[in-house]
Amino acid sequence: MVRLSKIYTRTGDDGTSGLVDGSRRVKSDPRFEAIGAVDEANCALGLLAVALAGTPHLAGVTRAQNDLFDLGADLATPLGGIGGEDFTPSEMVLRIVPAQVAALEAAIDVLNEGVGPLRSFILPGGTEAAARAHIARAAVRRAERAMAALAQAEPVNPAALHYINRLSDWLFVLARALNVDAGGDVLWQPGAGR
Q: Given 31, 53, 148, 155, which residue has the most CB atoms within 10 angstroms?
């Protein structure tokens, strides 16, 4: 259980921030870039959740938000120190696990049953809820790019990389599903503005 009685600590006033293992890095470090991008994606999911209140899709968004907190904890725990030498979760170390990826894949399959095959690129829009899903998808893609950049510099949990990739896929299919009752996808018309 997390318990914060004081929000400001002043420990980051020097431009550094702490990781789970107690180490400190500059706030512009690729690991913090990835953690921050995941946080931004979670905020975008929060905005989507508001639009989905009272719908069956809200549970999936809430689950994804919780998973993104798990992902942030995973990224905040580098290998070595408290994280150990592999990405195995433990009582003290939270990691994204393949079951979270599999749950997203199952959710994609269920949503895909209700939408037709994709025959064109689609524009990010339609209903307000679908537009918010597309904003969240784009934010998740930014987080994925930040995580991929981090993975070039130091080890990143492979399941975490799989999860963030699958989450953007789920959001894309969710946006399509949210547009079904509003007439379907907004199709790209190449060269329409010429």
A: 31
- Express the helix, strand and coil content of the chain in percent, nearest 5 each: 55, 5, 40
Q: What is the pLDDT of residue 2?
A: 62
Helix (H, G, I), strand (E, B) or coil at 2: coil
Q: Summarize pLDDT for 33-49 with one digit per residue, the tens.
A: 999 999 999 999 999 99
Q: At 172, list the tokens.
A: 């894309």
Measured distance CA(163)–CA(68) in Å, rounded = 9
pLDDT averaged over every residue in the chain? 93
157 contact partners, CB below 8 Å, separation of at least 6: 74, 87, 95, 96
Let me know: does 163 contact 71? Beta carbons within 8 Å: yes
Find where tokens 């946006």 sit.
175
Amino acid of residue 37:
A
> Contact at 8 Å (CB) between 194 and 135?
no
Return the exposure string of 76-90: e unless at least 16 CB atoms fall within 10 Å of the residue's CB, then b: bbbeeeebeeebebe
